[in-house]
Automatic annotation (TrEMBL):
GO CC list: extracellular region
Chief location of this protein within or outside the cell: secreted
Bias type Basic residues, positions: 193-203
Record's keyword annotation contains Zinc: no
The family this protein is said to belong to: Belongs to the R-spondin family.
GO terms (BP aspect): Wnt signaling pathway
GO MF annotations in UniProt: heparin binding
Bias (Basic and acidic residues) ranges: 183-192
Name assigned to this protein: R-spondin-2
Sequence segments annotated as region (Disordered): 177-209
Keyword Disulfide bond found: yes
């Protein structure tokens, strides 16, 4: 794929040479463009011992544009696995089978990161700290007076993971809990004691003799 891209640009450059160095201010018959109009970038590459120059509106993959006082140049990204870079050492997009992480391209994402196939980037993974103790069992900010309430616990996220915007697992959990039905100091109604039935005294029958 890279060779095809380079060959395409070389063919365009050759066509430019045949067209009397289109876009050039200063041109060499053997080496192509030497200087370009102020809006264009000078792209230079080597083919064996020969060097070719071409004036382009945008730099090809693997290069980035640098504007100067006298000439704007297409400068090659330092990493061969970089498709588009902001500066020589800071990549913005990697080639196929590579993943971008902090301006660098990797075949495998570094530890504590996870590959994102859709964007071909390495994203920080979130590893929260330990769970806290369960909170008091409450219902509508009350700790008593109801049969059931809810208690919660939380865990913290490292500062680095927050800054990177990493996707984190749940940081809070809740569960149902039983509350004290009566609060201290509440007056409770006395239970009605059922009256015991009074036993009637047994009457003994005397049989007359």
């Amino acid at each position: 794929m890279e060779m095809l891209t380079q060959n395409r640009w070389k063919k365009q450059a050759s066509a430019g040479l045949l067209e009397n160095c289109t876009g050039c201010i200063l041109c060499s018959e053997d080496n192509g463009c030497i200087t370009c109009h102020h809006r264009l970038f000078l792209l230079i590459w080597r083919d064996g011992i020969r060097q070719y120059g071409m004036c382009v509106h945008t730099c090809p993959p693997g290069y980035f544009g640098v504007r100067g006082l006298e000439v704007n140049r297409c400068t090659k990204c330092r990493s061969p696995s970089c498709e588009s870079c902001f500066s020589r050492d800071f990549c913005m997009k990697c080639k196929d089978k590579f993943y971008l992480y902090k301006g660098q391209c990797f075949r495998q994402c570094p530890p504590s990161t996870a590959a994102q196939p859709g964007t071909r980037e390495c994203q920080e993974t979130c590893e929260p700290g330990p769970w806290s103790e369960w909170s008091a069992c409450t219902h509508e900010n009350r700790t008593c007076g109801c049969k059931w309430g809810v208690e919660t616990r939380v865990r913290e996220v490292p500062e680095a993971a927050r800054e990177e915007g990493a996707a984190c697992p749940p940081l809070q959990e809740s569960r149902r809990c039983r509350m004290k039905k009566h609060c201290p100091g509440d007056k409770t109604e006395p239970r009605n004691k059922s009256k015991k039935r009074q036993k009637k005294p047994k009457t003994e029958r005397h049989v007359g003799t």
